Amino acid sequence: MARILIVGCGRLGIMVGDQLLRQGHEVTGLRRHPEQLPQGFFAVAADITDPASLAGLARQCFDYVLVATTAGEFNDQAYRRVYVEGLGHLLAALSKPIKRLFLVSSTSVYHQSAGEWVDEASVTQPSSFSGVRQLEAEALAQESSIPVTVIRFSGIYGPGRYRLIEQVLHGQGASGELYTNRIHIDDCSAVICHLLALSERGDEGDDQLYVATDHLPVTMLTIKQWLAVQLGVEGGTLSAASVANRRSSKKLSNSKLLATGYRFLYPSYLEGYSQVLEGWRQQHRL
């Protein structure tokens, strides 16, 4: 049994915690409103943007820490406050030793935009504030005295996230030239637990940076045309979208993650969005 602290108990953090509890681990959740944590979690009421609220962490011992925070707002100030400054406060407050810290990051750190293949070794020169702050957070964690695993997730989707379905129903298409990369939230949770299990067994290796994305980079138009067929919408009626509406286009490789033995629950959008559609139909009683 490992003692695991999850910082940022939103949807993903809670999913990971539930899975770890089922495996017999001890899970502590840190959030501003700990009364919202599920049964089985130990609770810490704190806010990583408020260093004083983290003082109690120095009296607790954890084997692993998962940082899966969200900024709450999409602007540079919020990203800096949570991902960079907040992480710094957390690292200063944690009691050592900790076997490993797992940091949820994003593929927004990549700047590539010409449809090229990208992996962990690719250059990162983000032009967006979101990518810049995520990269700063990665560096901050890696410069700490705690061993770190950074997981760069691509676009996360899953049950309850029906934006693309609604767009298709309203006839909104996309460019057929720009690639998007996706990962189902169930795989996000499973990837984190898989990598933590590797660390517990001492099989994690030295270079702990992973791109987490499914097997099939695809254009957004391809996904929407497939959804149109499933929804009975005439695909040819989807409106075109300008290439200028998208900031980047690249194809992400998950080869390094696969080499660890991870097997995807939803290898592509075909399996993943079939599950999402099922939930949407049940919600709408279709």
Automatic annotation (TrEMBL):
One of its GO terms (molecular function) is aldehyde dehydrogenase (NAD+) activity. Residues 10-159 form the NAD(P)-binding domain. SUPFAM superfamilies: NAD(P)-binding Rossmann-fold domains (SSF51735). Gene3D superfamilies: NAD(P)-binding Rossmann-like Domain. Pfam families: NAD_binding_10. One of its GO terms (cellular component) is cytoplasm. PANTHER family: NAD(P)-BINDING DOMAIN-CONTAINING PROTEIN-RELATED, PROTEIN YEEZ. This is Nucleoside-diphosphate-sugar epimerase. The lineage of its organism: Bacteria, Pseudomonadati, Pseudomonadota, Gammaproteobacteria, Cellvibrionales.
